[in-house]
Specification:
The protein is an alpha+beta fold. Helices cover 30% and strands 23% of the residues. The protein is globular.
């Protein structure tokens, strides 16, 4: 890395320290684009796939083969097949669940029925299947366009191609809230490295039903140089990887060799670094409430006077309700309830007007955190124990005051129906709290004329 770029990185991360060691360095020179909600995200991804010159590589966790892409692009498989027909090298790493993880969601596990479908379609994209240890999941969601070339672009986030898009803005019949980030520049090369490492060591690659339609000698070369600078953002690609899953510790360009065989927890550690460094505000959107160790760090931030808003599913998942009934999960809920004792903490959910009248729950599936309008992370990693300790995950950690502040404004404009351009992060979260509180009161009164979509929830009753 050039000396001037190195200085920029060192200065910007002095506020919120990055994780070291990890597989990938922090890199200056990235151009970022937030993609909020599945419609805009998949619209942009389809555009990128359509314009791909050389390759389209993706890692998939949950997928519905006939998932409909927006704007008449056809299904998920249609998009891939058309790219192959143009001569583009298309590769997919699918997750194959173990028995312990077989009920997580819709997957393309490489069953005989799946292979029959591919044969019937004459699909020629290349695929490999990859297991995670025990009950864990290969949970990464990434798309990589033109790996190793000037047009190299990566997409990282939490959105699965599993729920067909009816209302592209998720404002019609409830829906889902989720986020991707598009990365162009040197850090896209680390997404390239991640794909090569996983492709070459995919657990099922030696099995006849573990690959399509190539042999087990089809290996990829690691990238040899980082992509050119394309913007102003400092980004570190971070991962959680279970020990023993991969072994080739080949260094990324400009990085150092990392013992991936011992596992990696750079996402989990970065979450903690950011919470501990927060001075003003922490804004979290996550599918899962935090495990006790993380909730304890959030409580310490609250004691320092940091304002915290946590956006979670308004309708808890079944496992949360089950946990409420078990004594061994008491610590989990007691730590969440402790957060609710602070005036500067707000737990919120989302709803949207529905066609039948009233409001429907919007399921929060995003995995992001913003700290002090200076740092953000966006990716696949939840705050539950599986993501933090066993799943394979990928996030982009971002150090860029202007970009993070703009993302905060975009998210709050959607959730609150308010433009927070002219107020700081702390004032914005105070406004969030007030609007969410007022909306919750209206809900109790049967009044569905809300400001925005956010409503306050009581931590002491979540999951009851």
């Amino acid at each position: 890395m050039e000396a001037s770029k190195s200085t920029v990185v060192e200065n910007i991360i002095s506020y919120i320290p990055l994780v070291n060691p990890g597989s990938y360095p922090a890199r200056a020179g990235n151009r970022l684009r937030p993609l909020v909600e599945s419609g805009p995200a998949f619209r942009r991804i389809c555009e990128a796939v359509h314009n791909a010159q050389l390759s389209v590589w993706l890692t998939v966790a949950f997928v519905l083969a006939d998932f409909n892409m927006p704007d008449g692009h056809g299904t998920f498989l249609d998009v891939l097949d058309r790219a192959v027909a143009r001569g583009v090298d298309v590769r997919v790493i699918f997750w194959r669940p173990n028995l312990e993880s077989s009920r997580y969601g819709q997957v393309f596990a490489g069953t005989e029925a799946d292979f029959q479908m591919l044969r019937a379609r004459s699909s020629r994209f290349r695929a490999r299947w990859d297991r995670a240890p025990k009950g864990f999941c290969q949970h990464q969601k990434s798309w990589l366009i033109d790996a190793g070339h000037r047009s190299e672009t990566a997409f990282i986030g939490g959105i699965n191609p599993t729920f067909n898009i009816v209302d592209l803005d998720n404002t019609g019949d409830g829906g889902r809230h989720d986020v991707y980030v598009e990365v162009t520049g040197p850090s896209a090369t680390d997404v390239h490295h991640n794909f090569v490492q996983r492709w070459n060591e995919a657990s099922e690659r030696d099995l006849i039903d573990g690959r399509w339609p190539h042999d087990d000698q089809d290996t990829l070369s690691f990238p040899v140089r980082a992509s050119e600078s394309a913007g102003n953002s400092v980004v570190q690609i971070q991962r959680n990887v279970h020990a023993g899953r991969y072994h080739n510790s080949h260094a990324t360009p400009g990085g150092t060799s990392y013992d991936i065989g011992a596992g990696e927890q750079s996402i989990s550690n970065q979450y903690l670094n950011a919470i501990r460094a927060a001075r003003s505000s922490i804004y979290i959107e996550n599918q899962a409430l935090p495990v006790p160790a993380f909730a304890l760090e959030i409580e310490r931030a609250l004691k320092r006077g940091v304002h915290v808003v946590f956006l979670a599913p308004g309708e808890p998942e079944d496992y949360v309700r089950q946990w409420r009934q078990t004594a061994e999960r008491r610590e989990f809920f007691s730590r969440i309830e402790a957060l609710g004792e602070y005036d500067n903490f707000t737990l919120v959910g989302l709803t949207a007007p529905i066609s039948r009248g009233g409001r429907g729950q919007v399921y929060v599936h995003a995995k992001l955190m913003l700290v002090d309008d200076k740092w953000a992370t966006i990716g696949s990693c939840n705050l539950h124990s599986n993501s933090l300790t066993g799943h394979t995950e990928i996030n982009a950690a971002i150090w860029d005051h202007d970009w993070v502040r703009a993302l905060r404004r975009e998210l709050l404009r959607e959730h609150l129906g308010e433009d927070t351009t002219d107020i700081d992060d702390r004032s914005a979260l105070k406004l969030y709290r007030r609007i969410a509180h007022d909306n919750a009161q209206r809900f109790r009164e049967g009044n569905f004329e809300w400001k925005g979509r956010a409503f306050e929830m009581a931590p002491s009753r979540y999951g009851t």
